[in-house]
Amino acid sequence: MTDEGAPKDRGCLVGIIFFILGLGTLLPWNFFMTASQYFNNRLTLNTSDTNDDTVIARKEYYFDNWMTLLSQLPLLLFTLLNSFLYPRISETMRIAGSLVCILILFIFTAILVKVDMEQDRFFSVTMATIWFINSFGAVLQGSLFGLVGLLPQKYSTMFMSGQGLAGTFAAVAMILALASNADNETAALGYFITPCVGTLITLMSYLLLSKLRFAQHYLCKNKSKSYEPETTNQLLLTEDTTTENGKANGHTNGSPVANGSMDATPSSSESRQAFLPLEADKADKPDESKLSVIEVFKKIWVMAFCVTFNFTVTLSVFPAVTVDVRSAYEGEWEKYFIPVCCFLFFNIMDWLGRTVTTLKRWPPKESRLFPALVVSRVVFIPLLMLCNVQMRSNLPVLFSNDAAFSAIMLLFSLSSGYSVCLSMSYAPQLVPAKDAETAGILMTFFLALGLSLGAGLSFPLRFLV
């Protein structure tokens, strides 16, 4: 809900900026994930037999599984660290610094396209890049979730919608690269230059945010409540206990201010009037101290469970299992099947699921039906494993048709985007406004926990197929 005295968000510029920031947080993950075919092609070994005929021998690197795992483990680790260290490191350093580092790593990945490298070394360098780029992405995402939690509710939804569109952006970029007449190397170079531009735009958008009055109104007001309660309380107590001879006889926050140890600074009627708004605010809000992390968790644990379980289900099969589904049809369509039916369909519907929460939020945050619906998503794991996944050795194929796989993916991704957006937007509403930032950062940790659990679960599920 917008404050009555707040400036107007002209042209919804702050909303657009948070949409772009949401887009920028998930660019690294989505561009590496969608480029699965490019990485797997570079990890294909070429050997020659005795007749000098070329033989393609593939060493199994399980790239998609390792890419998912090494994306989510640093996300979990650095999100946890960010939850406790964010008051000690400036917001600008955490957000702008992370974006600069991500930009440098994307440029390095683009350069690597033109560098010939032995497969094992390329695999190691790529995995190291994925680890570091997602470490900075975790700090960025956690900081931005905490920041957007200080603004009215609709800005959290716009931020989540931007995150949902990041995958669509990456999938479209990959389809255009495949459709171009350029050779594979040039197409891959153009593909990885795209997130460099996107990250640069994200950085510029964040720097612009601090200059907008609407953003300043909420961010400065809430940060003063979050980080400076002791200073405010000391000023209030000093004024309330000031005697006529200018000596303080009170005590606050363990600091001695009694027995003539501190001179009272306000001496004029103007000074007295300057403190009246603060005293009135104190009367309205007698306790401005923030809740502890544990106390905040006790209030949001249901939403924390929902976001964790949701992403555990999603990452357990996407993309590690779904990327190996093969089309039932031969020809040119085979080249586009995974980029379209796996990545594009997933990301469009995930974004739609996040966006529809701006129109309708159901079930309500107090309802027990919401966590029940989140748990019911587990049915998608066996459904996707029974699609035409190749290679397979254990389970039968029950859904060999492309349309069946596409329909399952559409429902799978729509439900994922909808439930995660509800979880992330409901959590800050369950705590006082001064604790919304802490709730947002905690939810980011549990989001990362779900991603990591899903990534770990993807290994046994892929072997089970």
TrEMBL record:
Topology in the lipid bilayer: Multi-pass membrane protein
Region (Disordered) residue spans: 239-269
Major location category of this protein: membrane
Pfam families for the chain: Nucleoside_tran
Entry GO CC: basolateral plasma membrane
Alphabetical keyword list: Membrane, Transmembrane, Transmembrane helix, Transport
Record field: transmembrane: 12-32, 66-86, 93-113, 125-152, 164-182, 188-209, 300-321, 336-357, 369-391, 403-427, 439-459
InterPro entries attached to this UniProt entry: ENT1/ENT2, Eqnu_transpt, MFS_trans_sf
An MF annotation (GO) of this entry: uridine transmembrane transporter activity
Any Gene Ontology biological process: adenine transport
Compartments where located: Basolateral cell membrane
Name recorded for this polypeptide: Equilibrative nucleoside transporter 2
Protein family membership: Belongs to the SLC29A/ENT transporter (TC 2.A.57) family.
Record flagged with keyword Ribonucleoprotein: no
